[in-house]
Structures are given as C-alpha cells and as structure tokens.
UniProtKB/TrEMBL annotation:
MF-aspect GO terms: monooxygenase activity
Keywords recorded for this protein, A-Z: Monooxygenase, Oxidoreductase
A Pfam match: MmoB_DmpM
Oxidoreductase recorded as keyword: yes
Full protein name: Monooxygenase
Family, per entry: Belongs to the TmoD/XamoD family.
Length: 89
C-alpha cells in the first residue's frame, strides 16, 4: 500500500501545524528539509483543527492549510474539524 504524504513549505506559519500533525499521528515520519517539511505515514494521516489551534493560540480554519501546501497524496476527507488523507482499500 502506498504511503500517505503531506508536504508543506518550511516557515514559521507551518511550524505549529507540523508539530500538531506529528503529535496527533505518532506513526508518521516528519522529514525537515531546507524549504519544505514532508510528513508521510501508512494508511492514514489526520490534520485536526483543534490541535493546530492549541499550538497557534488562535482560531484556525483548515482551509488555511492550502496557503503553505506544496503537494499531498491520498484520498481527502475534509470537514471543518479534520482534514484526513487515506488510501481506501
């Protein structure tokens, strides 16, 4: 089964997002590179609004994720509270 992947620009805006995603997905691998951060996992990767808000200390609309998004792989299931990447069996 292919890995799920999320790649974000490496900057101050994405630092708390990456931290929240890593904490919510302990099975994920985070690869910090000079200009980007690649997060990949098997089966499923969940990005939770509430976790990001805790790190940022302010409200966060998951649509803001797209501002610093470079690429992703997997099927997307998106609500106001969660952005999930997965591979359907």
């Amino acid at each position: 089964m292919p890995n799920i992947m999320l790649v974000l620009q490496a900057n101050e805006e994405t630092r708390p997002i990456v931290e929240a995603v890593a904490e919510d997905n302990p099975h994920a691998r985070v690869d910090h590179q000079p200009a980007m951060v690649k997060i990949d996992a098997e089966d499923r990767l969940a990005i939770r609004r509430e976790s990001i808000e805790e790190k940022l200390g302010r409200p966060f609309d998951l649509q803001e994720l797209h501002i610093n998004l470079i690429t992703l792989s997997g099927h997307i299931d998106e609500t106001d509270d969660e952005f999930v990447l997965s591979w359907n069996n």
